[in-house]
Amino acid sequence: MQIPGHRLGDPELPRSLIDADAFATMKEVALFGDDDVAALRRSGPILEPQIEAVLDVWYGFVGSKPFLLAHFAHPTSGEPNGEYLARVRARFGQWIRDTAAARYDDDWLRWQFEIGRRHHRVGKNATDGATSTAIVPFRYLLPLAQPIVQTLRPFLAATGERVETVDAMQDAWRKSVLLQVTLWSSPYVAPDDF
User: What are phi and psi of 80, to 5 degrees?
Assistant: First the structure.
């Protein structure tokens, strides 16, 4: 399935600011290991048939917070841009699949830096030609990890997995999202400081 604007594996994406060795140290700091990779991959088939329902929950959360919804709305009228929301939603669904696949190669690193650019003024709105705010403020990037991971639990538990297995999957998602948001933060940080 082709998702408009999804560019994982696109050789035209700029190189990431860090290489695989640097990302390995980030994983080490986050206590992210092979068990987490296995737990993420186990979550994939569980989440796949529920992706639209997960997105409904996540979009419901964002939509209930005017200060978040504003970043999908026209900056002067404040009216949400439905087309923009739909295109981002499709990519968000693919992000669930990409996260569950747990493939941490150079293409994936490049894509994470591109996702960061799309939240920052260097690239926000460009992919979809949207008219919206120029930037998602940094203060929202990291805190959004909490509702994303917390609200996954009922979906991870939907197939009756043991509590320990659900805990492991949710913990792996928490670590992965934290690592990804750190990579997405790169446009907000001076390169020498990243």
Answer: -60, 140
